[in-house]
Specification:
Blueprint (H helix, E strand, L loop, with lengths): L18 H14 L7 H5 L5 H12 L10 H14 L3 H6 L6 H21 L10 E2 L6 E2 L7 E2 L17 E2 L7 E2 L9 E2 L2 H5 L21 H10 L2 H4 L1 H12 L12
Antiparallel strand pairs: 1-2, 3-6, 4-5
The structure holds a DNA duplex (21 and 21 nucleotides).
Pfam family, one: Myb_DNA-binding
Keywords: DNA-binding, Nucleus, Transcription, Transcription regulation
Protein name: Myb proto-oncogene protein
Length: about 260
DNA sequence: AAAGGCACCAACCGCGCGCCA
DNA sequence: TTGGCGCGCGGTTGGTGCCTT
């Protein structure tokens, strides 16, 4: 298959957008929407390729874009989500309303990565704090996850595959909150048994409200997800599933429905 | 004050995927 | 089934401003 060129290079402008171009693009999209990005610049009278227009709109001009610095809460959320999702910026951005993948990517590379590496360098090995706080009652429960191995992380692995959910707040129904940045110092490393064995004694009666996700009867969810083809065939659905669990209210005693 | 280095961020590039004819 | 097309994503680059020497 021969790929068509991204855009006609001849005569098309590149580089920073002028305010007039922004104005043209914004007013055109507000009037007509953006059905076809490739055709849009021609119809709008812009000397840009569709790709450039799309990027400008998505990353800068869209009305719901949140401008300004990231809050510490947003930054912590990014760190947590990055632990879960890796460099899947669009997936991370989907959980941060008003923030774009490009913006998050930039913040990660320029700020958060360094901060995490610095904290990793001074990392000490401690037992993880399993924190679940209710935004109204400030109830905090702690417990120790089973079948998890903890080791000191080196700087290269700290930001890639570890899955420390220990400080994820479940009390906010919209956003993951990470109230205890200190707990970033303890990165649990998941071993094989985590994925294949129940993380706890399944005979125990358990609810969402008193167990963290990875203490949840994992095999039960594995089975369910496999049945729904989400676990093997659709990583995004799987992550959304876990994200749903993380963000359930602390009061919930219901198991997630499928 | 000037030059070099660094950090930040907007924008570009190339690839892969899904849709459709 | 195949190939073309459009879109979205992640990695990378380049411009600009600030800081340090």
């Amino acid at each position: 298959m021969v790929r068509a060129p991204c855009c006609e290079k001849m005569g098309l402008k590149k580089g920073p957008w002028a305010p007039e171009e922004d104005q043209i693009l914004t007013s055109y999209i507000q009037k007509h929407g953006h059905g076809n990005w490739r055709a849009l610049p021609k119809q709008a009278g812009l000397l840009r390729c569709g790709k450039s227009c799309r990027l400008r709109w998505i990353n800068y001009l869209k009305p719901d874009i949140k401008r300004g610095n990231f809050t510490s809460e947003e930054e912590e959320t990014i760190i947590k989500l990055h632990e879960m999702l890796g460099n899947r910026w669009s997936a991370i951005a989907a959980k941060l309303p008003g923030r774009t993948d490009n913006e998050i990517k930039n913040v990660w590379h320029t700020n958060l990565k360094k901060r995490l590496l610095n904290s990793t360098n001074s990392r000490r090995v401690t037992k993880p704090k399993i924190r679940r706080s209710d935004s109204n009652s400030s109830i905090v429960t702690q417990s120790e996850p089973a079948n998890l191995n903890f080791r000191e992380m080196d700087s290269t692995s700290a930001c890639t595959t570890s899955s420390d959910f220990s400080s994820v707040t479940v009390g906010d129904s919209k956003n993951i909150k990470c109230e205890d940045i200190e707990s970033l110092e303890t990165m649990p490393v998941i071993d094989e048994s985590f994925w294949s064995e129940p993380a706890i004694d399944e005979t125990q009666s358990m609810t969402i409200s008193d167990q963290m996700p990875f203490q949840y009867p994992f095999t039960k969810y594995e089975e369910t997800l496999e049945q729904s083809h989400a676990y093997d065939s659709n990583f995004d659905d799987g992550m959304d599933f876990w994200y749903d669990i993380f963000t359930r209210t602390a009061d919930s005693t219901e198991l997630p429905e499928f």
